[in-house]
Amino acid sequence: MKKTILLLTSAVLASLIGHAAEVETYVIDTSHSSVKFSIRHFVAKTTGNFSEFEGTLTINRDDLSQNSVEATIQIPSVDTDSDKRDAHLQEDDYFNAAKHPLMTFKSTQWKATEDENQFKVTGDLSFNGITKPVTLDVELLGFGEGMRGKYLSGWEATTTLDRTEWGVNGGQPAVGNEVNVTINIEAHRQ
Question: What residues make up the domain containing 75?
Answer without folding.
Answer: 21-189
